[in-house]
Amino acid sequence: MKWGRILICKMVKWKSTSIICLILGVLIVIQYFAATRFSDLLHHKAPPDYQCGVHRRLGVVEDILCQEKKKFLPNFKNPCWYDPDENLMYSRLRCLPYFHIFGVCKSGTTDLFHRLKQHPQIVGNRGLLSKETWFWSWHRYGIAFPNGSNEVYLEETPTLNYFIGYFQIPKIWEMKVSTDGSRYSDIITGHGDPMDFWDNRFWRHIPQNDEGASEPTYTTANLVHHVQPNMKLILLLRDPVERLYSHYYHQRLGTSPEDFHVDVSASIRHLARCERQNTLRSCLYNQSLLQNMPTHLYASFYDVHITNWLNVFPRSQIFITRTEDFSRDIKRHLLHLFKFLDVGDVPEKVLNKMSDMSHRYRSIFKVKAGPMLNRTRRMLIDYFREPMKRLSSILNDPRYTWDDVYKELYSERLH
Fold it and tell me: Between 20 and 30 A from 379 (CA), which of 21, 188, 257, 279?
């Protein structure tokens, strides 16, 4: 304390103006550092500079963001180009998907894709159910299927070139002749991986992300945009409460409504503990947390997930509708989708066939288990109320609170 007494004695000898200036200087320094620290809490720090071809760490996956972008052929509606073989003896036609149904699981994506394939200009791909590749969210990271704490790994990690192989569809190569004699193809293909909307748990493997950060700067949305910036995106959003219930049985996480109630309650507690020290976004993309949660609660936070995509793609490139609205008027939505995809209209007979088809891929385990418990539904409606309000604000559409659905289906349970 000796230095303190010396400083006080010297300050007594100073003039009052000097003392005031010293105090003001100290206050300015304190204010600057306080403001800087507070700003750091509110805003992410800019990621360090990244040079393509120079990885910051070992074991990273294929660096998509540093790959050269393809130049697509003007006479193909679908994004295609010619790649020379290794010996430059000949070129082969390679294609990417024109559209992507990118979410959300258990919202009717398989049913929608099957209906779209009935259009004469739309063909499926070589993946599961002629629509799924599982590339962007799982396979490119070497994960065959994220099965809780027992993840299933692939023997080899697929590259983008492997992904492109899903879309080598001979029908795309069938050329037509226009009135001026030029040759063209108006056939398009797409894919439908509904986990791509929400599953970013492996974001630390993207080389451009800071692996020491708490949440990603770059997500699947950035990768997709780099590869196909004009991608047509289709998003089906279902009541997040009922979607979660269907997802639970689809993954066979339990066998009864009672199991679901217990597991949902535990999932809410898991997420709440994480949020005490982290942002919601960092918790929703926390790999270890997601591995240990007994339900896919995190997939229903539509407001957080849609922001990743809207930060990269213009709103005009994303067709968004509610599952409930699509089911009520399938024909009208198909007509809107034809316009969105810029494909021709179909005869009324074909349109009726597309809209009247029986629903594809229902959750038989959910049907067997029966309806959700009333107390679970009330708990989840209250839990998702704020996220739904935020989504409604982001999309500037009051329907995305699902209030009309709840009033119609659960009116006797709401006050």
Answer: 279
Q: Do 234 and 260 touch, CB atoms closer than 8 A?
A: no
CA distances from residue 327 to 22, 112, 248, 260 in whole angstroms, order as listed: 71, 10, 21, 26
**Numbers of helices and strands, H then E, in the chain:** 17, 11
- Using CA atoms, how far apart are residues 119 and 98, in angstroms rounded to an integer? 14
Which residues in 309-405 belong to E strands, given as ranges? Answer: 318-322
Hey, is 143 helix, strand or coil? Answer: strand
- Secondary structure string (H, E, C) spanning 95-117: ECCCEEEEECCCCCHHHHHHHHC
**Residue found by looking up tokens 């300015």 in the block:** 28
pTM metric for this prediction = 0.85
Q: At 332, which helix (H) or strand (E)?
A: helix 330-341
C-alpha to C-alpha distance for 155 and 358, rounded to whole angstroms: 38
Helix, strand, or coil (residue 294): coil
CA angle at 219 for the pair 215 and 224, rounded to the nearest 5°? 175
Distance separating alpha carbons of residues 296 and 298, to the nearest angstrom: 5
Helix axes 257-275, 240-250, angle to 10 degrees: 110
* DSSP classification of residue 348: H
Q: Is 49 helix (H, G, I), strand (E, B) or coil?
A: coil
Q: What is the pLDDT of residues 161-220, one digit of tens each?
A: 999 999 999 999 999 999 999 999 999 999 999 999 999 999 999 999 998 999 999 999
Q: Is 334 exposed, middle or buried (0-12, 13-18, 19+ CB in 10 A)?
A: buried
Only one residue has tokens 């021709």, namely: 344
Instruction: Give the residue carrying structure tokens 């409606």.
Output: 381
Return d(Cα 330, Cα 322) in angstroms, integer.
11
85 Cβ contact list (under 8 Å, min separation 6): 91, 92
What 3-state DSSP class applies to 393? helix
A 10 A CB-CB count for 199 gives: 25
Residue 293: predicted pLDDT: 94
Q: 1: which 2 tokens? A: 């304390």
5-19, 67-81, 104-118, 167-181: which range is least confident on average? Answer: 5-19
